[in-house]
Design brief:
The chain has helices spanning about 5-10, 10-15, 20-30, 70-75, 80-90, 110-125, 140-145, and strands at about 45-50, 55-60, 65, 75-80, 95-105, 125-135, 150, 155-160. It is α/β, with parallel strands linked by helices and about 170 residues long.
């Protein structure tokens, strides 16, 4: 999903206190106010690099270690694609920042620690921020933990890395 000024402007009440704050944020992130045209993307749709040198990654949907093309079409996001795209971004001349756009309920633990390590390594090369619109729960929350700044919309659900599972033995009752 491309973060154009027009898209954000339509939701400015959710994202920030006033429209001027949104305009200031957009200008800092080189989001075109005039055209609202999306930035060029890789074929897998994860990475876009704008003219200010900010790479944007979409972390949308359930997270898994790897996914089939048909699963990706159904909205599954895989750590392997994210790691590859982060490696590519870090190797890109002129990279000044990384933005993770997140709307995910979390997902699989397999592959997550490696993906978190990759986000942490990328944060050493460029300022890394996360924008949460919707949800960043469980694995998604852990994934963005190394970011220097995390911004969430007013209605976003952010939190809880992991879960608590209660097991009650009924052996004595049986």
């Amino acid at each position: 999903m491309s973060q154009t000024f027009n898209y954000l402007a339509a939701r400015h009440e959710v994202w920030c206190a006033d429209f001027n704050a949104l305009a200031a944020w957009s200008s800092c992130h080189d989001i075109s106010c005039a055209t609202g045209q999306p930035s060029p993307r890789k074929a897998d749709g994860i990475l876009s690099l704008n003219s200010a040198g900010v790479a944007t990654f979409n972390v949308i949907g359930p997270l898994v270690k790897s996914a089939l093309p048909s699963e990706k079409q159904m909205g599954i996001c895989c750590y392997s694609d994210l790691c590859s795209a982060l490696e590519e971004a870090v190797a890109t001349p002129g990279l000044k920042g990384i933005c993770l756009y997140v709307d995910s309920p979390g997902g699989s633990f397999a592959g997550l620690p490696e993906a978190v390590d990759m986000v942490e390594a990328a944060a050493k090369s460029a300022r890394t921020e996360a924008v949460v619109d919707g949800m960043a729960a469980s694995a998604a929350n852990w994934l963005i933990a190394p970011c220097a700044k995390i911004t969430a919309s007013k209605s976003a659900q952010v939190g809880s890395i992991g879960c608590i599972l209660t097991h009650t033995s009924v052996a004595r009752a049986l």
